[in-house]
Amino acid sequence: MAKNRFLSREKPLTSAVSLFVITTVFYFFGASLRVVEALSLFWPLNAVLAAVFIRYPFLNNPFYYALCYAAMIIYDGVTTSWGTASLLINFSNMVFIITVSLLVQREKRRSTIASPLPVHALSLFNYCIFAAALCALFGAVGSMPVDRHAFYPLFADWFSEQFSTGVLILPCLLSMARPQWPRLSLENLYPLLGVVVCMVASVGIGGAGSLAFPLPALIWCATRYPLPFVCLITLITGMTEIVLVANSIIEIHMTSPLYVNQMFSARLGIATIALCPLMVSVSVETINALVRKASRRADYDYLTQVLSRSGIYEKLRNESDCLAPSNRQLAVILLDIDHFKNINDTWGHDCGDKILAEFAAVVNKVVGDKGWFARMGGEEFVIVCPAMSNADAILLGHQIRERVEQHQFAWKNHIHHITVSLGLSWTACASASLEACFNAQMTEADRYLYQAKQYGRNQLCAQNVPVMGRAAS
Ligand SMILES: Nc1nc2c(ncn2[C@@H]2O[C@H](COP(=O)(O)OP(=O)(O)OP(=O)(O)O)[C@@H](O)[C@H]2O)c(=O)[nH]1
C-alpha cells in the first residue's frame, strides 16, 4: 500500500490528526457549496474519505471511523443549528464511506483479475449505487426535520449526489499514484480540446441530450491518455456539467433554476456517462500492460534477463531510424563460454543455469550503456555497439574477457571459474540498415570466435588483434 508520512500504521496520533483535518477541510468545502437550501451541490467528503480508507486499509477500524464521525458532528455543531438531526445526517455520510471502503477491500482480497484500478471499474460503479442508496435512506430521514421536504425528493437528491460524486471522484483518487502523464504536444492535446468544444456545444445547444455531448471526446481521451488523467478529465467534465445544469447554463428544462428532483436525472445521467471513458481507459491500460508483458517475454531472455535474439533485432530496427548513417560504427562481439558442457556434466544443469545468469549480469555491467547485450541461445551471447570505434570495441572485449576470468561464480559452497572466447567484427555501416549490417557482421564475428576457440579459448580475436595462443591440434 502507498506509504504516506501523514497516514501510517506506525504513527496513530499523526494519522488521527490527519484524518480529522481531511474530514474538516472537505466538510467545509462541501458545506460551502450548499446552494439549494441545506443540500450541497457536491459533497466530495464521502468519496474522498472512502478513497482514504481504501488506500490505507489499517484505518478501517472503529476508532478511525468514530473520529471522522466526531469531526463531522463537531463541524455541524459549530456551523449549523441542526441539533440532533446532525447525528443521523452524518451517520448517513459514514454509511457511504464504510460501505464503499469495505466492499472494495473485499473485492481486492478476492480478485484475481489484474486491473489498473484496485477493483473492476464496473464493480466500483455498482458499489457506489449500493452505498449511495443506503446512505440516502438514512440521509433523507435525517434531513426531513431540517429541510421540511418529503422523503422522496430528499432521497432522490441524496442518492443522485452521493452516486455521481462517488463515481466521478473515486476512480480519480484510486488511480492517483501512477504519475506517467502524457507528453505535451499539440497532437496530444486534441482529445482534451475535443472535450472543451463538446462542452461549449452542450451550453450552446442545450436540452437533456446535450449532457452526453462530451462522451465521444472523453472516450477519445481514454484511448490516448493514462488512466489517472482520464479520471481527472472525466471528474472535471462531470462536475462542470453539474454546476452548469444547476445554474441553468446548460438548459435541460424550461423552468429555471432547477429544483432538487430535476437534478436527480441530470446527476444520474452524468455519472452513467462517466462510466464509459473509465471502462475504455481501464481496458486500454489492461491491454497495453498485456502487450508490454508479451513483448517483454519475447524480447528478453527469461533465464538471464538480458535481451533475446528477437529483442536485439527489435533494438536494431528502432535504432536504425534514430541513428544517422554517418554516425554508425557497428561493433559486434560474439561471446561463447568455454567448456560450458563440462560444468553441466559435472555440477548439473541447475549450476549451469546459475552460472549463465551470473555471467550475463557480469558482462551486462561492463557493457553498461555502451551497447546492447543479448543471449543468442545456449551459452552464446552477443554485444552490439551501434556507435563505437574499433579501438574502443577491442578494449571493451578485453575488459569483458578479464572480468569474467577474475569473477568467482559461487554454487553450493564451491567457487567456479570460467573463461569466455570472443570474436569481434567492426564496420562503418554508412548505407545499409543496421539490421543488414549486423547480419553481415555476425558471420565475420562468428569466424573470429571460431578462431579464438581454435587458438586455445579465453581470448578475443578480431582483425588486427594479435592472437594469444597457437591453434589447438
Ligand atoms: N545449464 C544450461 N546449459 C545450457 C543451456 N543452453 C545450452 N546449454 C549447454 O551448453 C553446452 C554447450 O556445449 P558445447 O556447445 O559443446 O560447448 P562448450 O562445452 O561450451 O565448449 P566450447 O564452446 O567448445 O568451449 C551444452 O552442454 C548445452 O546443454 C541452458 O540454458 N542452461
Automatic annotation (TrEMBL):
Its EC number is 2.7.7.65. Pathway: Purine metabolism; 3',5'-cyclic di-GMP biosynthesis. It comes from the Bacteria. SUPFAM superfamilies: Nucleotide cyclase. It is an enzyme of class 2 (transferase). One of its GO terms (biological process) is cell adhesion involved in single-species biofilm formation. GO terms for molecular function: diguanylate cyclase activity; GTP binding. It catalyses: 2 GTP = 3',3'-c-di-GMP + 2 diphosphate. Coiled coil: none annotated. GO terms for cellular component: plasma membrane. Its cofactor is Mg(2+). The chain crosses the membrane at residues 12-29, 35-56, 63-79, 85-104, 124-146, 189-213, 225-246, 258-280. Keywords: GTP-binding, Membrane, Nucleotide-binding, Transmembrane, Transmembrane helix. Residues 328-465 form the GGDEF domain. PROSITE patterns: GGDEF (PS50887). This is diguanylate cyclase. It comes from Mangrovibacter phragmitis. The lineage of its organism: Bacteria, Pseudomonadati, Pseudomonadota, Gammaproteobacteria, Enterobacterales.
